[in-house]
Amino acid sequence: MKTKVTELLGIEYPIIQGGMSWVAEYHLAAGVSEAGGLGIIAAANAPAEWVRDQIQKVKELTDKPFGVNIMLMSDNAEEVAKIVVEEKVPVVTTGAGSPERFMKMWKEAGVKVIPVVASVALAKRMERCGADAVVAEGTEAGGHIGENTTMVLVPQVVDAVTIPVIAAGGIADGRGMAAAYVLGAQGVQIGTYFVVVKESIVHENYKNAVIKAKDIDSRVTGRTTGHPVRALRNQMTKMYLEKEKEGATLEELELLTLGGLRKAVVDGDVINGSVMAGQIAGLVKEEMSCKELIRKLVSETDALIGGNGLYE
């Protein structure tokens, strides 16, 4: 399955694992890369030396390409950006800001830079500043989201830029992957399904919540703050939405979610924690290995569009 994305990144299949905070660590990243996709370590707000350690542990488990996701609003972003160069990480994906201040350093080091975007304007800006590709992520995705749906966003971004576009948000099987190609994407980024794979260190309670989720089970909190987040509905999302409706302050709302993702991922508190997952959770039915999931995605996509010229 050759596309501009597989050629750019030196991977077998154009499948990128989402950079999910607390979830995307070295076991998962190495598993995805070994299976032919692009595994990602999520730096989030973690200490820079933790990120370095994660990078080194991935290298011990695989010699295939992998990447680091940098949340650019993090206080540690600059230090992590330098560690990426020092450790010769092949790929960086970025979110929550613009990577422009690091672009010269990364490009000189040969790092491929792929920002996650939620609008055409940001995609065009990223191309101008030297991005190698962009991930166009629709509002169906889990975690921090924009407003445009994947179906709407991807073709508009494809028309607006000349660099490869990777579709994200609402993709969990070959039908979604095939649809992404038809919309003009050269690859896909998947988050929610990778949460429940065998290599994922996520607490079993979190995995089970995703597997049991129905199509109507996600909620978006934080629209009033300008930082919307999609997660599975529970006591925390119910309280948050009630407080938003009552006009609670940003400080009051932040207290509700403080440490919420760690509660869910590490402690398994799926009642009061933040169980981030996309709308596609209703299609996630079983735990399988990274290799099994990627093979499933590829075979289903091939059955639908193989030989139609959408990829070589």
Please state the overall shape, judged from the principal axes of the Cα atoms: globular
Largest sheet: 8 strands, parallel
Stretches where pLDDT is under 50 for at least 5 consecutive residues are none
Radius of gyration: 18 Å
Helix content: 40-55%
Estimated structural class? alpha/beta
Mean pLDDT: 92
Strand content: 5-15%
Instruction: Walk across the major sheet and give the strand order.
Output: 1-9-8-6-5-4-3-2
Compile the SSE list and pairings.
Layout: H1 4-9, E1 15-17, H2 26-34, E2 39-42, H3 48-61, E3 66-71, H4 77-86, E4 91-95, H5 100-108, E5 112-117, H6 120-128, E6 134-137, E7 143-144, H7 150-160, E8 165-168, H8 174-182, E9 187-190, H9 192-195, H10 204-212, E10 218-221, E11 229-232, H11 235-246, H12 250-257, H13 260-267, H14 290-305
Explain the overall architecture.
There is one protein chain. The chain is an alpha/beta fold. It is built from 14 helices and eleven strands. The protein has helices spanning 4-9, 26-34, 48-61, 77-86, 100-108, 120-128, 150-160, 174-182, 192-195, 204-212, 235-246, 250-257, 260-267, 290-305, and strands at residues 15-17, 39-42, 66-71, 91-95, 112-117, 134-137, 143-144, 165-168, 187-190, 218-221, 229-232. Strands 1-9-8-6-5-4-3-2 form an eight-stranded parallel β-sheet. The chain has a three-stranded antiparallel β-sheet with strand order 7-11-10, with helices on one face. α11 packs antiparallel against α12. It is globular and about 50 Å long. The chain starts with a helix and ends in a 7-residue tail after the last helix. The model has no long low-confidence stretch (mean pLDDT 92).
